């Protein structure tokens, strides 16, 4: 069984949002071991050219975040890619032949939908299947985990898409243990 966690940093909350950072990692759902990592910053201008959108409320929200959080996403000019290149790199990161095998975890009504839409906007086939999308929030809710529990964030940066993936993997692994009757 293959599991992939995805997380995005965006400039909007709708399905057409500009993506500023893509994070992903393959992981073992039983142990939490991270087996492969991906992080790409994306230029806002390339997203706008592709027809993605910015919304005012998200800009205002980002202005209220810490300097560290904003620098993680918006000031790393050495490692920023146009949307098409970032999505092509994501496809390369994703092992071939696993389209219908990998379970893709995310905030399914947010990250998953936005990423699928970005692939459509640039006429590129998504490497993962919408039929294998799994939602973190639902799982965490079903086992009554505290999503704000700081122990899951230990050693990680806030609003870094890869670190957010790792945090979310920790939640998923713990929630699945609880579902199986362990602690």
Automatic annotation (TrEMBL):
Pfam families: Rv2179c-like (PF16473)
SUPFAM superfamilies: Ribonuclease H-like (SSF53098)
Sequence ranges assigned to domain 3'-5' exoribonuclease Rv2179c-like in this UniProt record: 3-174
Listed GO MF terms: nucleic acid binding
Protein's UniProt name: 3'-5' exoribonuclease Rv2179c-like domain-containing protein
Organism of origin: viral metagenome
């Amino acid at each position: 069984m293959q599991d992939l966690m995805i997380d995005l940093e965006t400039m909007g909350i709708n399905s057409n949002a500009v993506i500023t950072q893509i994070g992903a990692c393959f992981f073992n759902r039983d142990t939490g071991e991270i087996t492969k990592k991906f992080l790409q910053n994306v230029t806002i201008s390339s997203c706008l050219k592709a027809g993605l959108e910015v919304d005012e409320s998200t800009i205002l929200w980002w202005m209220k975040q810490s300097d560290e959080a904003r620098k993680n996403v918006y000031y790393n000019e050495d490692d920023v890619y146009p949307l098409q290149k970032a999505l092509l790199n994501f496809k390369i990161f994703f092992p071939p032949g696993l389209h219908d095998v990998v379970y893709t975890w995310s905030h399914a009504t947010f990250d998953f939908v936005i990423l699928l839409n970005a692939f459509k906007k640039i006429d590129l086939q998504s490497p993962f299947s919408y039929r294998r999308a799994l939602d973190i929030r639902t799982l965490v809710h079903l086992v009554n985990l505290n999503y704000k529990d700081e122990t899951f964030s230990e050693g990680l940066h806030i609003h870094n898409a890869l670190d957010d993936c790792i945090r979310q993997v920790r939640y998923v692994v713990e929630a699945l243990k609880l579902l199986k009757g362990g602690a």
